[in-house]
Amino acid sequence: MLNPYLPKFAKIVAIAKASADAKLFTLSFVDKNDRADFKFCHGQFLMLGVLGFGEAAFDICSLTNQLSTFELAVRKVGKLTEKLHQLKIGDLVTIRGPFGNGFLEKSYQGKDLLLIGGGCGFITMRSLILDYLAKKLPVKKLDVFYGCLNEDTLFFKNEFSRWRQKINLAIALEKPDKKWAGPKGVITILFNGRQDFGDTAALIVGPPVMYKFVIKELKKGGMRDGDIYVSLERRMYCGIGVCQHCAIGPYYVCKDGPVFSWEQLKNIPGAI
Amino acid sequence: MKTNQLYKFIEYLSQQNIVWAPQKINGELVFDTVFRPKDVVLTADLPLHSFKRVLVPPAEALFDYQNGKLKPGIKAPAQVIFGLTIPDLKAVTFLDQVFAKDNYFQERMKKALVIGHSLVPKAGYQFFIQHFTEDILEHLKFDIFLAVQKDSFIVYTGSKDGQKVLDDFGDKSYQHIEYVGPIREEGPDAQMLKIKEKFYENPEIWQELGRRCIECGKCTLVCPTCFCFDIFDQPGLKASGGQRCRAWATCFYADFSEVAGVEIDRKKPKFLPTTADRIRFWYEHKFVRCPKEFSLAGCVGCGRCTKVCPVGIDIKETLQKILKGKVK
Prior knowledge:
The complex is a heterodimer. By secondary structure, chain A is of the alpha/beta class. Helices cover 17% and strands 31% of the residues of chain A. Chain A is globular, with a radius of gyration of 18 Å. In chain B, strand 7 and strand 8 form a beta hairpin. By secondary structure, chain B is an alpha/beta fold. Chain B folds into 2 domains: 3-185, no CATH class; 192-324, no CATH class. Classes of the chains: A alpha/beta, B alpha/beta. Chain A binds chain B through residues 1, 3-7, 9, 49, 51-56, 75, 77-78, 81, 92, 207-208, 233-235, 237-238, 241-245, 247, 249-250, 252, 267, 269-270, and chain B through 62-63, 65, 68, 70, 72, 74, 98-99, 101-103, 106, 200, 203, 227-233, 235, 240, 242, 244, 246, 249, 251, 256-261, 269, 271-272, 277, 280-281, 284-285, 288-289, 292-293.
């Protein structure tokens, strides 16, 4: 019987800045069998740990077919992530997973796709965006809405100009500095009364407060409940639907999610 | 087996095992390791703390780490869990489903000898009471079961380990029962399904309980089926060494559902923000998620949570309210 609590070791092979207080870690499994076995789909997550500092869940944000290495963007917010930020190239971390039910191709195949990311939730979108740019995402058109506090906290800023050659990336900042010429306010201002969501699927990832307002806009724009997908954040320990921390109603975010269709969640108290 | 052979049997078991059993110590019924077999009592009453900590320890190491090497900590002593009533055997059976793929639990289960008996607790805190009939045994996990008669026991075995122990003890009068899984032929329990179906009909139940519950978490400690846990690292005294551990959690405490983010009034952001949310979550686990996953309720009706609750929340009453459904 495989022990799901025993992690694998991965080595940090590159570290880049992802935002003012976040780093992008490129990791590679130490064992070549682990490297060969690794695959994931959009929206899945890993339990990343540093021995002595515990584990937490992080969404994978690299290309789904780039598997000898993979990338996680990590904001410094607590004990584990502070330690992670001190690590250097060559240091080891522990990895379990990938876990969860991701954002599957059948949810958006042949449709327009709208990605709506708020704050750290935007990290999840990068893997979809990169696959789209590599022509690996079977959608007609990709639009991306990104809501963030200010320029400093924007993730992946240096990649935007390359992305914008192929996709429409709209950004709203809540508290930008004076130089900001783009939309100012919460993410819903980007909708601008759009009504053309009849053949569009959407994935929403962001802070809890965001979901309700965004879903309202999508429905106003003609999107069906079954075409709205959300990825949820919860405290997690086991990653395999046992420890109970991430439960919502009848579901586990780690096992049945983190990506759910709104159809699944709309009647569950406390889901969003 | 004659009733008066019981202490001899317990003494025999103590020779090579740690024996856990209900005992009267200083007038209190407790479930603990046995030092004097004469303290052991065969009783229908339920000790407040059940067998749970024997099979699901309050804290355990998942693995040791030292200099970048991992060593899994899967080990279990030879133990006897003696004197379980039918509700507690149901709890063992339930946990065996929950931890079916858990190496740590299964190793302990393998090394443990579970011995139950047929005395039925008197109505009181309890509900879902199931009287002993032979046909329920094939749905319970046990190694030996003692059906209590006037001055003897009818002895059943549920495993090869149970048979071997009895053979070695010199009592071969047992009948063997083959475990066929927890669900009866006629399907999952009808009342459990009804509770699941009506669970969300009357949200006022949770508001009312939320006003009374003080989030002390005692119910989760004494519940023989509550099993949620945290995982954390415990650095050791030597540099770069330590353990990754798991330990009981309780869904009533704030840190159960906290997430990373900006603190407001020195409080971390958390889901399940109100007491009403938390107590609903506890019931949801037992009566929505467990039935969905295992076709079993995460409740065996032992009533320990009612007995221990400092504000008098009675699970039996709550379930009756759920079954009543919408109030017009």
